[in-house]
Structures are given as C-alpha cells and as structure tokens.
Amino acid sequence: MSDDEVTPSGGKLAGTGGLTLAPRPRQKLGDQLYGEILSQIASGRLKEGERLPPEKEISAMFGVSRPIVRDALLRLRIDGLVHARQGSGTYVLRRPSDHLTRFANAEEVADYLRCMELRLPIESRAAMLAAERRTEKDLARIEKCHDAFRREAEAGVMSHTVDFDFHIAVAEATGNAFFPQVLRHVEPALHGFMKLMLNITKVSSRDRALTVLGEHETVLAAIKASDAEGARVGMEFHITQARRRLVDRTLHP
Predict the structure, then answer these.
(1) Is the pTM for the entire model greater than 0.70?
(2) In whole angstroms, how far apart are CA 179 and each of 36, 185, 190, 193?
(3) 179-197 pLDDT, tens per residue?
C-alpha cells in the first residue's frame, strides 16, 4: 500500500468549523482531502474569506505527507474555490452550488473538473471544424439532438444522455473519427458531470436551464452558418460557463 493510499486516523482543522476526514479504504488521500474540503466549502462550514491552516498543520492533523496536502490545495486553487495570499495563507474564495453534494460525491467532482480541462480544447476545436466541414446530414443530426434537448429543457426534465448526444453530433460532424472517440473514451466522467449539472439545473431557477439551452443554440447557429470562429468561441464559452456554474453558486442559483 502506497503512502498515497493509506487512510488517516482523522483530524480537525482549527477554526474551520470542524473539518474531519472519515477513513475510507483504498481511496487516495489527495482525492479524499480535496473532497472533504470541497464538501465543507459547499455546506458553508468553511466560509468565504476564511483562512485554512498552513500545509504543515494540515499534514500533522491528518497524518499525511505535505505533498498530498499541497496537491489537494493546488487543485482547489485551480478550480477557483480557494486562493493563496502571499505570506498570509490559503483562503476560501467562493462556494460551489448548494446542491453539489446532494447529487454527487465531492471526491468525484475533482475528476469532473479535470475532464472539463480536456473538453475545452478538444470540443472547441471540434465545433470549429464542424462549421467548416459539416454536411447537410451532419447538420440535420445536430439540429435533431438540439431539438430533443430543447424539448426536455422546456419541460424541466433534461437528461445527460440527450446533452451528450448533442456534443457527440458536433464531434462527428468534424469528419475526424478521433474527436468522438476521445469523448467516448471519457464518457463516464463526462456523463457524471452532465448528470450532476442537469440535476442541479432541474432544482434551480428556470433562467439556468434557458441559459444552457441558449449556449447550445449559439453553437448550432454558428455551425449552420459555417462560421468556424463563432462555433469555436461558442463552444469554448459553453464549456467554460458550465464549469463556472459548478464552482460558483452565484451564477444562476
């Protein structure tokens, strides 16, 4: 068993509202620590503006190495949840959606966000190429997928499979089989992210659902007009905003 898989005996972060790690067998400590801190931020027990203890103290509290602590905090910074102040420490920057831990395990969220990092360059490029190369048959399929997504959005019953179908249709319109292959390779994480986001959307304001639908419409319109740059920017904006909607609860609550 590697150091990264040893479960800690538990601990508490002073001044953070009682953050503790419950031992879970065979789970990487970096993922576990990330998930626990994320859960505490989402629940409001770690409040915006609150300072976390230094890496050394967290390491001692939980009996893990400092590189594990450093990795968890780095990933939280990358995801826009905490930020470091030079010479002062690490502070909670913002709270994710209030419903995040209702629909997913916090540890899974790290994988979903890493998947988004992959999607951003791949899918924005795919949208650009789709606008340049799509056939009438490709366009008809994208429109069909979008219509199915629109009907579900308007009925408030959006499914992750319909969302995925739209993105796959765009990828296949590139005429390059590697684009849909990449998406299907990460399909479990992609489905998990989409399912989480759509579940949050269902219990949020109607504006949130209409916003997501509008982003899809922008991509479709650009592909239909053979506007490669517009399609690229539209897809890049859509994926960036989807990620932001997860980590920032102030966006379309």
Answers:
(1) yes
(2) 34, 10, 14, 19
(3) 999 999 999 888 888 888 8
